Amino acid sequence: MLVIRRRPGESVLIGGDVEVEVIDIGPTRVKLGITAPKEIVVLRKEVRLTREENLAAARGLAPEKLVELAARFRR
Amino acid sequence: MPQFATKHFGIIEFEDDAGFEFPCGLPGFEQERRFLPIEQPGTKPIVFLQSLTRPELCFMTLPVPVVEPSYQLAVAPEDLRILSLPEDRQPEIGSGVLCLAIISVAEDRPPTANLLAPIVVNLKTRQAAQAIQVESGYSHQHPLVAASGEGACS
After folding, report:
1. Which of B30, B46, B112 to mutate to test the interface with A (most CBs of A within 10 A)?
2. Model confidence over A10-68: pLDDT tens digits?
3. Mind telling me how many Å the CA of A60 is from chain B's nearest CA?
4. B130 part of contact set with chain A, CB < 8 Å
5. Residue range(s) defining the domain that contains residue B74
6. pTM greater than the 0.80 cutoff
7. B36: helix, coil or strand?
8. Nearest to A50 among B67, B111, B117 (CB)
9. Cα–Cα distance between A32 and B122 in angstroms, integer?
């Protein structure tokens, strides 16, 4: 992994078309500004993880496993 | 009363206002806006979320407190807006707000719950969103095995 130190107002260029600028640094969060061509999808990673997880969850209900799983959580 | 033919539950009948409305769909299912919660005696406390447009699409969920009793919601302001909930405070699970974790059951690993992005429902308006938690540290693949020990004692 490439690690670069940047200050607010400074940027990193990725390829010829993508610019990531550090806009602001808070105590726990960094605000980034991303400039990229329309065809490049920019996503928070959590959205992709959730998307993949949703697609996996929708694939099968496996009824035989469900009864056992449900029993485990019954009070 | 509206009816819908589903793959897993056959033909279901439901009250007009029984469905949950997802104004933005769910990640990966952006076009799916209406789901019906279904509970069955043999599989409680599982709550199924059956799509009301795609017969084969059904998620299996568990109420988040069942999976993680100390769960703290951290819903982003944009999701609170979608849910018509006040933006100045975090909603409390139970007081008019339902919180469900989608369960993944795969062949090669134990079942997991997505605690990173639970489904939050405003029960008053029936609006729902899969709300990716802000700075929560919760996993999108929270193993369900840990809870089995507690269940076995009761």
Report:
1. B46
2. 999 999 999 999 999 999 889 999 999 999 989 899 999 999 999 999 987 766 677 77
3. 8
4. yes
5. 3-153
6. yes
7. strand
8. B117
9. 31
Q: What is the CATH number of the domain that holds B49?
A: 2.30.290.10
Contacts of B140 in chain A (CB under 8 A): 46, 49-50, 53
Which pair of tokens denotes residue A27? 């105590």
Model ipTM? 0.87
CB proximity B25 to A under 8 Å: no
Q: Is the peptide bond before B45 cis (omega within 30 degrees of 0)?
A: yes
Q: Is B100 on the interface with A (CB under 8 A)?
A: no
Separation of alpha carbons B130 and B17, rounded Å: 20
Q: Are A52 and B28 in contact (CB under 8 A)?
A: yes
Distance CA B74, CA B62 (A): 18
Number of domains in chain B: 1
B150, two tokens: 């507690």
Per-residue confidence (pLDDT) for residue B57, from 0 to 100: 94
Q: Tell me whether B76 touches chain A (CB under 8 Å).
A: no
